[in-house]
Design goal:
This protein is mainly α and 134 residues long. The protein is built from seven helices and two strands; from the N terminus they run ββααααααα.
């Protein structure tokens, strides 16, 4: 089994260690746990292009939250509506708006993959940076 320690991962100084977005930066983890983090950190141009995918949603936090909950609930609009405490018709409306703003269909595997990777990158960027030595 391959183990990757967070200090062994090449990263920019301002980026949290691999696994930070999943809350696993404080222990030894398997490569499989952090391989996407490593790929994103090593391909900044590709990462920036994918991250830009979500730009239209950043000014609409309710849409970003809806997208996250929709994915978290197995792409079930009904379960998402229950989780968000909104009318069941609100979620499909928001999802259509999200698809229009992103220019991607969430039912298309390639478009969905781009969105998932962009969300992961957003989570990595918003994860707290490790505290330096005191």
């Amino acid at each position: 089994m391959l183990h990757v320690h967070e200090r062994a991962v090449v990263r920019r100084d301002d980026r949290p260690p691999a696994g930070a977005a999943q809350g696993i930066a404080d222990r030894v983890v398997t490569f499989e746990d952090v391989c996407l983090d490593i790929m994103l950190a090593r391909s900044p141009d590709t990462t920036a292009a994918l991250a830009a995918t979500l730009d239209p949603l950043l000014a609409r936090p309710e849409l970003l939250t809806t997208l996250r909950e929709y994915l978290r609930h197995g792409m079930s609009a009904r379960a998402t509506a229950r989780a968000l405490y909104v009318h069941p018709n609100t979620v499909p409306y928001r999802l259509r708006t999200i698809e229009q703003l992103l220019g991607r269909s969430l039912s298309d595997v390639t478009g969905l993959t781009d969105v998932l990777i962009a969300l992961h990158h957003l989570d990595m960027d918003s994860a707290p940076a490790p505290a330096g030595p005191s």
